[in-house]
Design brief:
Structural class: alpha/beta
Oligomer: single chain
InterPro entries: DHFR-like_dom_sf, RibDG_C, Riboflavin_Biosynth_HTPR
Mean pLDDT: 94
Low-confidence stretches: none
Order of helices and strands: EEHHEHEEHEHEEEE
Number of strands: 10
Radius of gyration: 16 Å
Shape: globular
Protein name: Deaminase
Amino acid sequence: MIVLRKLVYYVAVTLDGFIAAEDGTFDGFIFEGDHMAGINAHYPETLPTQLREPFGLTDAPNQHFDTVLMGRHTYQVPGGLASPYAHLRQFVVSTQVTDTPSDVEVIRSDVAGRVRALKAEDGLDIWLCGGGKLAAELLPEIDKMLLKIHPVVFGRGIPLFDGKADIRKFQRTDAQLFESGVSFMTYERS
């Protein structure tokens, strides 16, 4: 029996459904509290490479993901790095990004086809890091969502799914509540 890797949309989101402010920043999210230790212990690979050492995770093995998929705006976040997740196989979906280091591959077309090919490879799951437009485009390929729901409201910004998407049903399979007010919710495709 062949087991395909999953495309997992793992992202922080506000109570009103935004993954970033209108300008693409995310400093309105809560970065201190008990949720940070819990999430970092279970998903160390989701910290940018430069933050792994300060958090004591330099040599932490990748537990869930060995590949990350980012939209252009996620990749080019203000103050971002040319190779933000050097400990993962990195892909950027864009027709505009041209100058990436050798460890960051740019996907320019047939994104869903490329994702299906990645899912057929051996390895850990594929982390869909963002953004909202890419998530809407890839909704038919998303197998699981890990949502870090922060108790904040942005009012406007970049939505969790930014664009036309067909209705897809997901089932909640796990829920963790933290004293910080952050909820970590797991949803799998029904």
